[in-house]
Design brief:
Structural class of chain A: mainly alpha
Strand order of the largest sheet of chain B: 1-2-3-4-9-8-5-7-6
Helix content of chain A: over 70%
Structural class of chain B: alpha+beta
Number of strands of chain A: 0
Low-confidence stretches of chain B: none
Radius of gyration of chain B: 24 Å
CATH topology of chain A: de novo design (two linked rop proteins)
Oligomer: heterodimer
Shape of chain B: elongated
Order of helices and strands of chain A: HHHHHHH
Radius of gyration of chain A: 24 Å
Number of domains of chain B: 2
Number of helices of chain A: 7
CATH class of chain A: Mainly Alpha
Shape of chain A: rod-shaped
CATH architecture of chain A: Up-down Bundle
Number of helices of chain B: 6
CATH superfamily of chain A: LemA-like domain
Strand content of chain A: under 5%
Strand content of chain B: 25-35%
Largest sheet of chain B: 9 strands, antiparallel
Order of helices and strands of chain B: HHEEEEEEHEHHEEH
Number of domains of chain A: 1
Largest interface: A-B, 19 and 14 residues
Chain lengths: 184, 252
């Protein structure tokens, strides 16, 4: 009889642990989803800024059509992207295109001096900071979640309950990834 | 000290007690050394804070008090501020405020039960009154918390922030009449990351136009006090930035 009580007690404890572990996994996964929506909000802010930026630049550098079209196309592609990987690629493209617009300002002093352009640049810089921060939050959450589903004993719950690993989100521009060459 | 030691020695002799003759002067000397040490320590602390205040262009008060505008400033049975340095907190934007050591005292049957020391930095952000009715960020309390719990759950509610690292470090509460979305807007991703990595783990309370940034221990060196001042400026700038953004946004 005592042995049966011990077995029942152990089973109850295991069941309790399973419930707590499952809830912790759900909570961590929700944090990842929330963090992704945080990234999404900041990306949307950047997308919303692009038309104003293009219009402002057009006023001073109308014949730089190809650069401006590239930005508009990149923005469209970024808005259409859904999965983190697709978003990653599209946002990297948009970042490159925006970099080209910024470079235009060097060739057009009037554009550089424009108050509206400066304000948009400042706003864009602030949004870039927020994107970077929200991306760090998302990646930290992904790391916490992925670790949790891969370590013992929570993997015993994560596997059967279909908690699959998430992917990190990186916006990398090819030019930024390249190792700088230093010559002496 | 000499008179006291001699007195206890003579008293011991009159009582024919070797213990009093030997122990009495020793106790008197020890008491005098402790008293001198305490007085010297207090004097050194006062000099340090006075010079620190002077270097920042702040006015030094050995002891002061603040109105209980936030839960922390109304915590415990008795409270006061030691080494209060008040004035314009230099930086961008320049804001009025002060920094000092908040002492909280819990009492029972008119006797001191416990005393806690925190370092606080206060910024006057009157412009935030309408937008922020109560946002309270508290370092997460472990099993043995160094300070009492002063946030009452009846008038506040907890909200979650999307960062795991942040949530492991902090608890966020808002007043019942605080718009939750507005509170979340204040905690922008960059502020969340910054707070989640800040070595001092500063908490803050924002209510009635007063921002109180605090650490739940006493900071008594220039480096850490300056670090807390910088943290206050950073959070204050974020609050004022959010207020300005909200004012610039077209009304819905």
């Amino acid at each position: 009889m005592t042995a049966m009580y011990v077995v029942i007690g152990v089973l109850v404890l295991v069941a309790l642990w399973a419930v707590l572990a499952y809830n912790a996994l759900v909570s961590t996964r929700n944090k990842v989803d929330e963090a992704w929506s945080g990234v999404d909000v900041q990306l949307k802010r950047r997308h919303d800024l692009v038309p104003n930026l293009v219009e402002t630049v057009k006023g001073y550098a109308a014949h730089e059509r190809s650069t401006l079209e590239a930005v508009t196309e990149a923005r469209g592609a970024a808005e259409a992207a859904g999965e983190p990987h697709a978003v990653e690629r599209a946002e990297a493209r948009l970042t490159s295109a925006l970099g080209a617009v910024n470079a235009l300002a060097e060739a057009y002093p009037e554009l550089r001096a424009s108050e509206n352009f400066q304000r948009l640049q400042a706003e864009l810089a602030e949004i870039e900071d927020e994107i970077q921060a929200s991306r760090r939050i998302y990646n930290a959450n992904v790391q916490a979640y992925n670790t949790r589903i891969q370590v013992f004993p929570t993997l015993l719950i994560a596997g059967p309950m279909s908690f699959s690993p998430r992917e990190f989100f990186e916006i990398e521009v090819a030019a930024e990834r390249a190792v700088p060459q230093v010559a002496f | 000290m000499v008179l006291g030691a001699a007195g206890t020695f003579v008293y011991g002799a009159s009582q024919r007690s070797l213990a009093i003759m030997a122990g009495g002067p020793a106790v008197v000397v020890l008491a005098a050394v402790i008293a001198c040490w305490v007085l010297a320590d207090r004097g050194a602390a006062t000099r340090f804070y006075r010079h620190y205040a002077q270097s920042l262009g702040l006015v030094y008060w050995p002891r002061s008090s603040l109105p209980a505008l936030t839960p922390l400033l109304g915590a415990a049975d008795r409270r006061w501020i030691e080494h209060w340095m008040q004035g314009a907190l230099s930086g961008e934007p320049e804001i009025g405020g002060g920094i000092g050591q908040l002492v909280l005292e819990e009492r029972e049957d008119d006797k001191r039960k416990a005393r806690y020391r925190l370092t606080i930095c206060v910024a006057d952000l009157e412009a935030s009154i309408r937008r922020f009715h109560g946002v309270f960020l508290r370092p997460r309390r472990g099993l043995i918390a160094p300070v009492p719990n002063w946030i009452r759950r009846g008038t506040t509610r907890a909200i979650q922030v999307e960062s795991t690292a942040f949530s492991e470090r902090y608890e966020l509460f808002v007043a019942d009449d605080q718009d939750e979305v507005v509170a979340r807007q204040l905690l922008s991703p960059s502020l969340v990351v910054w707070l989640a990595e800040h070595p001092l783990v500063p908490g803050f309370e924002l209510r009635a136009g007063m921002l109180v940034v605090y650490v739940d221990r006493s900071l008594s060196d220039e480096g850490n006090l300056t670090y807390l001042l910088d943290a206050t400026r950073r959070i204050a700038a974020r609050v004022l930035g959010e207020v300005a953004d909200a004012a610039a946004r077209p009304a819905a």
